[in-house]
Structure formats: C-alpha cells, structure tokens
Hints:
This protein has about 170 residues and is an alpha+beta fold.
Amino acid sequence: MDAIKLVSPTIEWKDKAINYRKEHFEYGEMIIYGSELFDKINNYEEWLESVTKNASPLTVDPNWVLTDTYFAVREKDEKIVGIIDLRHFLNDFLKDFGNCGYSVRPSERKKGYATEMLRQIIIRAKDCKMKELNLAVEKSNIPSIKTINRNGGVYERSFHYEGEEADIYKIIL
Length: 173
C-alpha cells in the first residue's frame, strides 16, 4: 500500500472529488459511506459548505453532530482513494450508524487503504479526547468487518435497518 494522508475537503479538491464520486456511481454504488451526503448533493460547493459548517461547534447543523470529514489522499500522486468521517458523539438518530463511516474508491480496494484510513481516524479521535468509536457495518460487508477487526474493533450488538442486518463494533481508544 502506498502512503496516504487524511485531508479536509477544500475547493481545490473539487475536480478530484467529483471524479471519485463518479467512479463509485460507475460501479453501481449509489451510496458512498462516510461522505456526509456527497453521494446525494450534486453541487460540490454546497456539499463543501455543509461539511465545513459541521466541522465547527459554532456552525454545526442543529440536527446533526460535530463531524470531521476527510479525503484519504495517496501521497505519491494526490489521488483521492477514500473518504472517511468522524462524528464526535452520537445522537439518537446516529446510535445505529456509529462514529465513523468510510469508503474506498472501487479501483483502489484490497490494497489496505481502509485499514490505514481507520487507523489514522483513531489517532484523530484520541486527539479529540474521545473514549471509544462505534462502527456500524452490514453483516455481509466482510472487508469492512476485517478492517474494523484489524483496528481493534470488538463486536458489540446487532440491529436491523431498512431490512438489512448489521452489527455495531466498538474500538476502545
């Protein structure tokens, strides 16, 4: 795996971010986990304004929670290989979605990027004085379960959402 870094979205990342989203859609993936609705908002500037506001306690949407969103960028060529978010706490709506979601670009999977993205977000969570991360994953998503386990995740409980059975894993920080 090539080295990656987590970077906050800015306007400079617009073209690469749109290309990242396009690849998911071309693979038939209409949901991009961890993207804070980047899969639903067609206007990059509108999405950027939303994630920027939600990253500050002063401007976070009152219906949401403080959330940091990052592109996982491969250092050697500045290609966005993934996206990951960190929700600083969970409200009632988010209790079954967890503190963190992530996606890896379809053409870059099975290279260890998800494991490294989660490892780096754990460091950021510790820096934010968080005590644990809860991660939700569909039972059928074996690669994500392996990623969570590699980062110390322990099965906590199961739940159903929109007809899917899913699990919550906990990582103690």
